[in-house]
Design brief:
196 residues; mainly alpha
């Protein structure tokens, strides 16, 4: 009887995980119920990450923004790299990146994930989310700096190019010093130029 009630409970929690796909309907109450369920709720979320409906996968990935633990990182990583829906990949990248929302920061190779997504994802929005993650990633990482330099050399989208520039200033102190000096020199030159 205990195994049967556990199975029923797991099924009910999975139904709550499915409700996370409805961002404006029952999702807030489902999220609170899943949180109260502890590990069983977390298991339902992990189950939801492989649901056939992309809205459910996205809702479960969004739940992990505040509730992910190191045990969830492999699933978040897989979603960020391989989910067929760009909105799900973007949500997974955000959930992995947003460390301040979690009770304990994740210890997986976040920079490695963000670099791979920033360089390889076909969606501009997903790449943008990864670059934004590299902007806030601490401490500086040589892999991030190399990837951002590559993006600066090859990216044609002006928004992504600008994001990569800002992120590289945070990742590479030498780059920051160089561009700050160039800006200072331009300011000096502009000040010396007589007004027409």
């Amino acid at each position: 009887m205990s195994a049967e009630s556990d199975h029923g409970s797991a099924r009910e929690l999975q139904e709550l995980a499915v409700q996370l796909g409805d961002r404006w309907g029952m999702a807030p109450e489902a999220e609170r119920s899943l949180e109260r369920a502890g590990q069983a709720g977390a298991d339902a979320i992990l189950w939801g990450l492989s649901h056939p409906d992309a809205r459910v996968r996205r809702g479960c990935a969004g739940y992990l923004d505040h509730h992910a633990t190191d045990a969830c990182f492999p699933q978040i990583r897989w979603l960020a790299l391989h989910d067929p829906a760009a909105k799900v990949r973007r949500e997974a990248v955000h959930s992995a990146t947003c460390q301040q929302c979690k009770p304990t920061p994740l210890t997986g190779d976040l920079v490695g994930l963000l670099v791979q997504v920033a360089l390889e994802d076909p969606s501009r929005r997903v790449r943008s989310e990864a670059i934004a993650g590299l902007l806030h990633s601490r401490p500086p990482d040589a892999r991030a700096a190399a990837a951002l330099e590559h993006i600066l050399r090859t990216e044609t989208n002006t928004r992504l190019h600008s994001q990569a520039h800002q992120a590289l200033k945070h990742q590479d102190p030498a780059y920051r010093a160089r561009v700050d000096e160039q800006a200072r020199q331009r300011g000096i030159a502009a000040a010396r130029t007589p007004k027409a």
